């Protein structure tokens, strides 16, 4: 079993504590994505699992082995970097087989592994080409194939798609997901791209300043963020954020300078307490209409319309706030038009303004 267990891990680099008391359990066969902004410690954690960083305190286990102080070559991992790091004088076949050849794996076994990986990654016709003769997407496939032929227990990916254009990223995301299903291997993937995280992960661990803020399935992270940071990091366009007060006298109302709305339908985690709050509503949770109604009681002014093929993003202003809503492509509206809106409150999020934790 190739589970990964991180227990009370401290990482200190250059006298700075990057990770403190990190605990994380990754199940065998799981695809875990470490998501967060630059400098949050996600790559440091990945490199520490790989054995590139020394551990100040704590331990790392892969399966039933404590690998805290094991050399990278002895951890049974396959690593894919952001840069392809291919040997320019070697063809695809030799690049992919380099690790097993150095490890003394029998030649027929290496050939079997290379052919299997090449078939999975659509590289069979390219085995005799050198990296200079390949596109960026093909080079990254070779880098992934080089990791696969190691027949590792755990595969580590450090932002492998960030150098590719949008079309290639989408293609390789799909292939990585299929590769995970085929190999039934444990994969840990670092990215700052929320689309990659949402589409690839079994679970996402959202990190900030070396601390995991929330870990869970993509739908859970997206739908029920535990704090304002997680809420704002996922979603495109980002979550609409409205600051105001929760009034509990004679009902439950959210009140801001721009408008007031009944929030009794919101699923509070505990008894609602009056005070400063932040109401978070994702664009798809905003209802738009051309006329006032019980479901769209508030008025705003359209500022920008962004067509996206099957959908449109409507940006509109309400007082000093600019909000966004996602509508279908048939919805009609132009800048400066008055628009009426309401919220799907059972699906919305509300946070304490001070702690920024979910209410």
From TrEMBL:
Lineage top rank: taxon: Bacteria
InterPro entries for the chain: AAA+_ATPase, ABC_transporter-like_ATP-bd, ABC_transporter-like_CS, ABC_transpr_MalK-like, ABC_transpr_MalK/UgpC-like, Mo/tungstate-bd_C_term_dom, NA-bd_OB-fold, OB_MalK-like
Gene Ontology cellular component list: ATP-binding cassette (ABC) transporter complex, substrate-binding subunit-containing
Domain spans labelled ABC transporter: 4-234
Gene3D superfamilies per UniProt: 2.40.50.100, Nucleic acid-binding proteins, P-loop containing nucleotide triphosphate hydrolases
SMART domains: AAA
The keyword Endoplasmic reticulum is annotated on this UniProt entry: no
SUPFAM superfamilies noted in UniProt: MOP-like, P-loop containing nucleoside triphosphate hydrolases
Database matches in Pfam families: ABC_tran (PF00005), OB_MalK (PF17912)
Alphabetized UniProt keyword annotations: ATP-binding, Cell membrane, Membrane, Nucleotide-binding, Transport
Transmembrane segments: none
GO terms of molecular function: ABC-type transporter activity; ATP binding; ATP hydrolysis activity
GO biological process: carbohydrate transport
Protein name, as recorded: Carbohydrate ABC transporter ATP-binding protein (CUT1 family)
